[in-house]
Amino acid sequence: MQSTIQSSGHPAGAGSKSFVLAAMRGDKGGQLTILAILAAVILIPLANTLLPSGHPLHVETFTISLMGKYLSYAMLALAVDLVWGYLGILSLGHGAFFALGGYAMGMYLMRQIGDRGVYGNPILPDFMVFLNWQELPWFWHGFDQFWFACLMVVLVPGALAYVFGYLAFRSRVSGVYLSIMTQALTYALMLAFFRNEMGFGGNNGLTDFKDILGYSCSKIPPKLLYLW
């Protein structure tokens, strides 16, 4: 990592962290953007729940659902900006980490279906029953708990990023070669997850969600739409 930071003209080693923090503190436009986003996160749901539908400042539920999606992709863009904009490391594999977090939450939603699936199996998701799986894979255990799924949303992508970054930077891989490796990592994960025997739904992915935190996915309260 030291050579990568040095090649981008930024201080190396421990100084790189202070450089990034100093750069972020001096970015007035970025600070205003973050404040605007925080204000929107707080005010928009309030405008939906507290103001009547005829009020000029009322925000429709559909708009809130779109805002939730926009904020999700904004987190992805922010991650790319921090790595590329402040450290000069171009990563083409952020989609892999984003997808791992999405799969972790999707596994929780699949476990919430229970016996309401097409095949009525209270333990196995429908695609596993269709593929003649006899028991739930070990890596699916625990995803019936929301707190565990939220923990895995952070830990699984973080663990992959740590291992990949350690091996790449320890080998002093940088520049375009690192970018190609991150892209290859994403493609390899895509091919692996598309295989039915991996236990992640294959090409169809994870579908037919029913509930989240006890609320129907088709009738989620506006205050939970950001989470959805």
- Number of β-strand runs: 2
> What fraction strand?
under 5%
Specify the overall morphology. Answer: flat
| Mean pLDDT rating | 81
* Number of helices, counting only DSSP H or I runs of 4 residues or more: 9
SS class? mainly alpha
What is the number of independent domains?
A: 2
User: Biggest β-sheet: count, sense, barrel?
Assistant: 2 strands, antiparallel
Low-confidence stretches: 1-16
Q: Report the span from N to C terminus.
A: 36 Å
Helix content: 55-70%
Cross-sheet strand order for the largest sheet: 1-2
Series of H and E elements: HHHHHHHHEEH
Radius of gyration: 21 Å
Protein name: Urea ABC transporter permease protein UrtC
Membrane topology: Multi-pass membrane protein
InterPro entries: ABC_transp_permease, LivM-like
Keywords: Cell membrane, Membrane, Transmembrane, Transmembrane helix
Highlighted features:
Urea ABC transporter permease protein UrtC; 2% strand; 2 domains; LivM-like; transmembrane helix; flat; branched-chain amino acid transmembrane transporter activity
Structure commentary:
The structure is a single chain. The two termini are 36 Å apart. The protein is built from 9 helices and 2 strands. The protein has helices at residues 2-7, 14-26, 28-49, 61-86, 94-111, 126-130, 146-170, 175-193, 222-225, and strands at residues 211-212, 215-216. It has a two-stranded antiparallel sheet. By secondary structure, the protein is mainly α.
